[in-house]
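Appendix B: a complete holo record

For completeness, this appendix reproduces one full record from the ligand-bound portion of the collection. The bound molecule is zinc ion. The inputs are the chain sequence and the ligand SMILES; the output is the full three-dimensional arrangement of the complex, encoded as structure tokens. No fields have been trimmed.
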Amino acid sequence: MLDTAKEVINLPDTICNEFQHNVQQYLIRHQSILDILSKLGETTARVNRAVTKSVTQCGCIEIKGKKNSLPENVSINELKSFFSSQVEGNLCEQCREIIEQEMGKHLFYLTALCTTFDLNLLDIIQQENKKISTLRIFNLT
Ligand SMILES: [Zn+2]
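The structure of the chain with zinc ion bound, as generated:
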């Protein structure tokens, strides 16, 4: 029973390391740092474009941007309720699929950048997770 629980806990770790290994194996054509950096920028733009198209071409979501105004004497616990994503609606199945595909490509090139500098993607995720877990609401960057 303990082994099963351990396997469940370690599964994301295994997938993350397997993903980085596969990216490393696949990186033949785009292994130059210049190619990786330019593809990383391109995939960021493609994620943004896919979200934009969900608004402007599909219409399944809308963006209601406005200034967030806070009343005086708001406690830290109440703070979250005064901010919103400013997104209304939900992604349709097609838009969700496209955005997921674009995010996947972005993760590929982010992982490729890790590989170039011999960085471990899982270590970075764990370090960031530890940081945000410690800082919680004060981590506003
Ligand atoms: Zn849609």
